[in-house]
Amino acid sequence: MVSNTRPQVLYFTGPRCGICKAMSPFIHETADRYGDEVDLVEVDVAADGTLAAQYSIRGVPTLIAVKDGDIVDRAVGARTPHQLSKFFADAAEGNAAQLLLTPVERVFRLGAAAAVAAIAVAASQPLLFPAAAGLGVFAFWDLLPKRSTRQTS
């Protein structure tokens, strides 16, 4: 199922996954646009648990870019059509996609951090400050350097 000749995007999905059902048309449309460069391999985790275990799938939807038998990138969760295009384009080149948050997503994450910090102050709960700090870091997580995701087997 997984070939070493062309770059591939493995799309792990589940039969009861609402996000998978919503994203599927966009993934297939994007795969059609990149069909000359990248192969799409759709994997139902309920039907093929072996491949899901081999790639350590913990949640669906999960996209994994594979080139020359090595994992070059992984994305878990919903993606916008623009992010999907970037993921497929980078998979064709064998590069890890740099999927950046939109400014709106970043503001929402920073707002959540500020809200938790405000609750910590108002309720005199210092144990909530680490949670606020974590949410603040999460707002910029996409900008931090990534460690290698190459699979050795």
Quick structural summary:
It is built from 5 helices and 4 strands, in the order βαβαββααα. With 153 residues, the chain is an alpha+beta fold.
Radius of gyration: 18 Å
- How many strands, which pairing sense, and closed or not: the largest β-sheet? 4 strands, mixed
How many helices does DSSP assign? 5
Number of DSSP-assigned strands: 4
CATH architecture of the largest domain: 3-Layer(aba) Sandwich
SSE sequence, one letter per element: EHEHEEHHH
Strand order of the largest sheet: 2-1-3-4
Q: What are the segments in which pLDDT stays under 50 over at least 5 consecutive residues? A: 148-153
Q: Which strand-content bin applies to the residues? A: 15-25%
End-to-end CA span: 17 Å
CATH topology of the largest domain: Glutaredoxin
Classify the helix fraction into a percent range: 40-55%
The CATH superfamily of the largest domain is known as Glutaredoxin
Overview of this structure, please?
- It is a single chain.
- The chain is an alpha+beta fold and 153 residues long.
- The protein folds into 2 domains: 8-93, Glutaredoxin, CATH 3.40.30; 103-143.
- The chain has 5 helices and 4 strands.
- A 4-stranded mixed sheet has the order 2-1-3-4.
- Strand 1, helix 1 and strand 2 form a beta-alpha-beta unit.
- The longest helix has 20 residues, at 103-122.
- The relative contact order is 0.14.
Task: Please describe the topology of this protein.
Elements (H helix, E strand, L loop, with lengths): L7 E6 L4 H16 L5 E6 L4 H6 L7 E6 L2 E7 L4 H13 L9 H20 L6 H10 L15
Parallel strand pairs: 1-2
Antiparallel strand pairs: 1-3, 3-4
